[in-house]
């Protein structure tokens, strides 16, 4: 089981970037809710077709757990982990700084 860190620079604005997992290109979109101050994730295929939309990024919780019916997403496990060891929520400016996203193949 290979583990990969999804590294990105956090910004206050929504951001999109491409990432290749097992030779398949995906587009990840992160955006922060001004109401909840939480970060959310959407994943698209290379044709910009939504595979997953609006999942709240929660530390130590498998982000794709409820979305295993999608054959592409069922191949991976995606987690947000606090590298400082404090187990803080993935909010504010922590995501991308102290809180990193880790993906493993199923």
Kindly describe this structure.
With 106 residues, this protein is mainly β. It has one domain (3-105). It has strands at 3-6, 15-21, 24-32, 39-45, 50-56, 76-82, 99-105. Strands 2-3-4-5 form a four-stranded antiparallel sheet, with no helix packed on it. A hairpin with a 6-residue loop joins β3 and β4 (39-45). The radius of gyration is 13 Å and the shape is globular. The model has no long low-confidence stretch (mean pLDDT 81).
What are the SSEs and their pairings?
Layout: E1 3-6, E2 15-21, E3 24-32, E4 39-45, E5 50-56, E6 76-82, E7 99-105
Antiparallel strand pairs: 1-7, 2-3, 3-4, 4-5, 6-7
- What is the makeup of the main sheet? 4 strands, antiparallel
Structural class, from secondary structure content?
mainly beta
Which regions have little confidence, pLDDT < 50, spanning 5+ residues?
none
Could you state the order of secondary-structure elements as H and E?
EEEEEEE
- Assembly level: single chain
- How many beta-strand runs? 7
**How many helices in DSSP terms?**
0
| Order of the strands making up the biggest sheet | 2-3-4-5
Overall 3D shape: globular
Helix content: under 10%
Radius of gyration: 13 Å
């Amino acid at each position: 089981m290979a583990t990969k860190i999804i590294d990105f620079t956090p910004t206050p604005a929504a951001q999109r970037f491409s990432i290749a997992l097992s030779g398949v290109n995906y587009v990840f979109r992160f955006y922060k809710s001004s109401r909840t101050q939480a970060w959310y994730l959407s994943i698209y295929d290379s044709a910009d077709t939504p595979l997953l939309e609006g999942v709240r990024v929660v530390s130590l919780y498998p982000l794709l757990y409820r979305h295993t019916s999608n054959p592409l997403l069922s191949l991976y496990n995606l987690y947000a982990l606090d590298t400082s060891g404090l187990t803080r929520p993935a909010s504010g400016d922590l995501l991308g700084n102290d809180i990193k996203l880790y993906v493993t193949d199923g």
